[in-house]
Design goal:
Blueprint: E1 4-9, E2 14-21, E3 25-33, H1 39-43, E4 51-55, E5 59-60, E6 79-81, E7 84-85, H2 98-104, E8 108-110, H3 115-125, E9 128-133, H4 139-148, E10 167-168, H5 174-177, E11 193-198, H6 203-210, E12 215-220, H7 225-229, E13 235-238, H8 249-261, E14 265-268, H9 270-278, E15 283-299, E16 305-316, E17 326-332, E18 338-343, E19 348-351, H10 366-376
Parallel strand pairs: 3-4, 4-6, 5-7, 6-8, 11-12, 11-13, 13-14, 14-19
Antiparallel strand pairs: 1-2, 1-9, 2-8, 3-9, 10-12, 15-16, 15-17, 17-18, 18-19
Helix pairs in contact: 8-9
Length: 378
């Protein structure tokens, strides 16, 4: 007999369904993801730290979990909320089932949920705090847990996912997933040095950076600008990551110093938000965030539209930016929010979406090439 899980939202909504994964309690911010594929990559994305993911795709777990598709070393989500858990795992690469994998890492899940209804609730009313129990905790206790939880606003979640010390990225499997760009090119003989800040970096980002033949050194989030500049990098990358950029004053200070240095810099997602804050802009919370692989953005200089992968709850406040110094490069076609910027007098640019797209469309892959062209002064 399957155990029953209970999910309670901060507004008092209570939902029951079959439990899977770990037998435990969890409290988190509940967000929905509209991606149709790639649940393993989503579950291991460090940007989801402190969040439970509600999948809009109805059937999860059919290909199990393999050893190659992780975006970090373990599942980063607090909980999984789904419509239907596949009773059968069928894939030649599968190493274990989704439920067993989550159980190994202490992550609970609930299935049998009307995810279409719950997604509409979050879309209409906004993101909510929630608590999930797979071990029999009462709905009343879960409601109190959700309401008492401090939420992610103003919190430094990056410290929970960043690396403890610097390391050189060794591209063990990148050529399987990302086409190499250095065959017969100058970078094969004259390798560029890239320093990548780990605010919760996805491995597919590192694969893309190294696919250009670069030597990529990953540094912890608290690394100062002086420490990075002492490494004499050709370029600096600011990664994605979880939580509220307003809680990362040390990172904003470092980014400010790096901007002043004139070393070419590229930021994605949280890295984009940190550049915005370093340039004097505030960041604000979106109603229900952007999470999925089907978000259209427009490149304003050319008018070209890209379908992108996204995962963020906060956004740079466009009106705070000095338009004499900053060019807005991308806007969301869903809600007109800021999706990209470029400095006019410094080699610095950033995008809110995920050009590495794991999972997601490949429309924006060429943005990595823009970074290397900027480094080479082309």
């Amino acid at each position: 007999m399957k155990k029953i899980a209970t999910l309670v939202l901060e507004d008092g909504t209570a939902i029951e369904g079959p439990a899977f994964g770990a037998e435990t309690d969890a409290v988190f911010e509940l967000v929905f993801n509209t991606s149709m594929t790639g649940y393993q990559e989503i579950l291991t994305d460090p940007s989801y730290r402190g969040q439970g993911v509600l999948f809009t795709v109805p059937h999860i777990g059919n290909v199990g979990v393999n050893l190659e598709d992780d975006e970090s070393s373990k599942p980063q989500i607090s909980a999984a909320v789904i419509r239907s858990l596949s009773p059968v795992v069928s894939n030649w690469r599968s190493a274990l089932s989704l439920s067993n994998w989550l159980a190994e890492h202490g992550v609970p899940g609930i299935s049998g949920v009307d995810t279409r209804w719950l997604t509409r609730k979050l879309r209409d009313g906004g993101t909510q705090k929630a608590a999930l129990s797979t071990k029999g905790t009462s709905a009343e206790e879960l409601l109190k847990m959700a309401q008492d939880w401090s939420s992610l606003d103003g919190r430094d979640m990056v410290k929970e996912v960043t690396c403890e010390e610097s390391y050189r990225w060794l591209d063990d499997m990148g050529s399987k997933w990302v086409e190499r760009k250095d065959e017969g090119g100058r970078m094969k003989d004259e390798r560029l040095s890239i320093v990548a800040y780990d605010f919760g970096i996805k491995e597919n980002i590192l694969r893309h950076l190294s696919s250009f033949g670069a030597n990529v050194t990953v540094v912890p989030a608290a690394t100062t600008s002086d420490e990075v500049l002492a490494m004499k990098p050709d370029g600096i990358f600011l990664s994605n990551g979880p939580g509220d950029p307003a809680g990362l004053l040390y990172a904003v200070e470092a980014v400010s110093g790096l901007i002043e240095s004139g070393v070419p810099m590229f930021g994605i997602c949280l890295g984009h938000q940190l550049i915005g804050r370093a340039l004097g802009a505030d960041t604000h919370r979106l109603k229900f965030g952007h999470h999925g692989g089907n978000h259209p953005v427009q490149h304003l200089p050319s008018g070209k539209v890209l379908i992108t992968a996204q995962n963020h709850n906060y956004c740079v406040t466009e009106g705070d930016l000095n338009k004499d110094k900053v060019e807005i490069t991308y806007k969301s076609l869903n809600d007109d929010s800021l999706e990209g910027l470029r400095m006019k007098n410094k080699p610095v640019f950033s995008v809110q979406f995920h050009p590495e797209a794991a999972p997601g469309p490949h429309d924006a892959h060429d943005i990595f090439a823009e970074f290397f062209k900027m480094i080479e002064g082309k």
